[in-house]
Specification:
about 325 residues, alpha+beta, Alpha-Beta Plaits, 2 domains, 4-stranded antiparallel beta sheet, 9 helices, binds ligand DP6, Mev_decarb
């Protein structure tokens, strides 16, 4: 019997990953850049044993259905190939997210699973190897191997596509992110399906790709300069562009709900009142607000006038994947 356990934190992209050029290997169309956060994380234990007749996957104490287990099994097949074993496995995962968050994150989940498997089978993967492995489970998971600011370099094949930490001289320690948990329902269009549909059908997709290098360069410069305004403006613009591509897809779709729009307006109003803060959104209606720590209480208070207190959760920069002994 071989066991390993790991914890990984979720990350939020400031420059989004949106679109794959290789679906099987999960190679992205563009580089992305994220901030790892400390508020939401996953702990995963994996046990490989010859007493198991098939793979089993438990999440928050409940055995998962065939579809969810299949995704994990496909990932475990890669791990088994690397570890030269045919043993079945039991995967026991716990998501530490506020209840009803609608944030159950594949990024933290797959990054923790990659770490746990590396430990269990003594695969000897370094961070780059772990990032490449996590990427095969879910693209954004490759960034959750690291803490702080992280860039996923798109690369051109399995070997060259992985994330690495960006040095920032501690800039991330000045920052916070306020999560507005606006909906806990299953998404209509998963990020996987949404990005595929957009790449295949959206006439705005090329525009997204064409402006990415400029956004990425500007965001990295903002990190180097510790320029919060430029960081926030670039992040917000990039998110709006990503969401714009979905409107021109066929059939068109959007992740925004009426509450998302109210939240965006609240952020703009706060800015007008002189509170620097900026929003971003992923493949769902929740809005995440980037703010300097010194203004986090002001932002939370303003948001809790619009939404209930338990919908407003703040996070700070988090650390990379860790093994739990
Ligand atoms: C909008 O990593 O969940 O959050 O690779 O298909 O598993 P798969 O997709 P996933 O996509 C995340 C998309 C995003 C932007 C981002 O995190 O960069």
């Amino acid at each position: 019997m071989f066991k390993g356990k790991a914890r990984a934190y979720t990350n939020i992209a400031l420059i989004k990953y949106w679109g794959k050029k290789d679906e099987a290997l999960i190679l992205p169309m563009n580089n992305s850049l994220s901030l790892t956060l400390d508020a939401f994380y996953t702990e995963t234990e994996v046990i490989f044993s010859d007493t198991f007749t098939k793979d089993e996957f438990y999440l928050d104490g409940e055995q998962q259905n065939d579809k969810a287990t299949k995704k994990i099994s496909t990932f475990l097949d890669l791990v088994r190939e690397k570890g030269q074993t045919t043993l079945n496995a039991k995967v026991i995962s716990q998501n530490f997210v506020p209840t009803a968050a609608g944030l159950a994150s594949s990024a933290s989940g797959l990054a923790a699973l990659a770490g746990a498997c590396n430990e269990a089978l003594q695969l000897g993967l370094d961070d780059t190897g772990l990032s490449r492995l996590a990427r095969r489970g879910s693209g954004s998971a490759c960034r959750s191997i690291y803490g702080g600011f992280v860039e996923w370099e798109k690369g051109f094949d399995d070997l060259t596509s992985y994330a690495k930490q960006i040095s920032s001289d501690g800039f991330e320690d000045d920052l916070a992110m306020v999560f507005l948990l606006l909906n806990d329902q299953q998404k209509d269009v998963s990020s996987r399906d949404g990005m595929r549909r957009t790449v295949e059908t959206s006439s705005f997709y090329q525009g997204w790709l064409d402006s990415l290098d400029a956004d990425l360069a500007q965001l990295k410069q903002a990190i180097t300069d510790k320029n919060f305004q430029s960081l926030g403006e670039t992040m917000e613009r990039n998110a709006l562009k990503m969401h714009g591509t979905t409107l021109a897809a066929n059939p068109p779709f959007t992740y925004w709900s009426p509450d998302s729009l109210r939240a965006m307006q609240a952020v703009r109003d706060l800015r007008k009142q002189g509170v620097p803060c900026y929003f971003t959104m992923d493949a769902g209606p929740n809005v995440k607000i980037l703010v300097e720590k010194k203004h986090v209480t002001t932002v939370k208070t303003a948001c809790s006038h619009l939404f209930s207190k338990k919908q407003v959760v703040s996070a700070q920069a988090g650390s990379g994947m860790t093994i739990i002994k």
